[in-house]
Amino acid sequence: MTGSALQVLVIGKGAREHALAWQLSRARSVKHVFVFPGNAGTHEVAASNGTAGISAFEGASSSEYHDLAKRAKDIGIGLVVVGPDDDVVNAIEESFRKVGVSCFAPSREAAELEGSKVFAKEFMNKFGIPTAHHGSFDNLEAASAYVRHVFTDKDHRIVIKADGLAAGKGLVLPETPEEALEDLRSIMSDGKFSTAGSSVVIEEYMDGYEISILTFSDGKTFFSLPPGQDHKRILEGNKGPNTGGMGVYSPVPMVTPDVLQKIDEVILKPTFDALAKKGELPIMFRFNSAVNSPTRPSFLWPAVHWSHGHQIGP
């Protein structure tokens, strides 16, 4: 990167944003990092040993996106990095783009691929990207009838996913038809996941292991980092309800070069080809993939970040 050092604003208050702020502060191209709203671990970290300082972002008249964008413009923020999924899907990027501040986040339209599992499944079906067999429903009665039909095979297990964002917790794994029907009522009628559960995806349960792959692209070529494995259940032994993530490790020894090549061929390349046809230029994309055989990896769900403008280097 050329030119003067950047002031960077990180949006979020969790461990993810703490890690982002800390790493950004170590880049020579960054002179200061602000965090909003931040937490006790991100506020008032003084510059030292060649690293930039980190401090709270203050002075905006409210937490509304347009007010944050105006304040960012006023104090010379050169780049905004967005952590929370909700802010990404709610199009925070638009507010910063309107005032001319680069924002590492997708547009409202592009974010739908992450924000709606129904939309993501339609995308995969349209472009021939392998994924679990599934049905999508916005009606409790139809969803319940589908569950009863699926469970006529006693060995058939399903996964129920709330369509929208639910802090990584919008997935249930019923063991019986009765559990599945109760889960549907809880999600679609009782509002267990608020409006995120107004529609659901019901899909086959896939044996095997799950991995996440971070992939960077310029819209024509792509490059992936080593795969990681996220552990979302709250208890040991993969037990208990899902959380936003109890921890992740990388690399994953069970993932062979042959498996990664197959993921490139049947998931990554078709996805980026499809996005190119739609006119999107993704910079970073996270693929959650289930591998139940070395020759049949399947795309579970995506997370996306688009950005244009700045390169942050060491």
TrEMBL record:
Record GO terms (molecular function): ATP binding; metal ion binding; phosphoribosylamine-glycine ligase activity
Source organism, top-level taxon: Eukaryota
Domain ATP-grasp: 121-219
UniProt keywords, alphabetically: ATP-binding, Ligase, Nucleotide-binding
Listed Pfam families: GARS_A, GARS_N
PROSITE patterns xrefs: ATP_GRASP
SMART domains tied to this protein: GARS_A
A Gene Ontology BP annotation from the UniProt entry: purine nucleobase biosynthetic process
Entry-linked InterPro entries: ATP-grasp, ATP_grasp_subdomain_1, PreATP-grasp_dom_sf, PRibGlycinamid_synth_ATP-grasp, PRibGlycinamide_synth, PRibGlycinamide_synth_N
PANTHER family registered for this protein in UniProt: PHOSPHORIBOSYLAMINE--GLYCINE LIGASE, PHOSPHORIBOSYLAMINE--GLYCINE LIGASE, CHLOROPLASTIC
Protein name per Swiss-Prot or TrEMBL: Phosphoribosylamine-glycine ligase
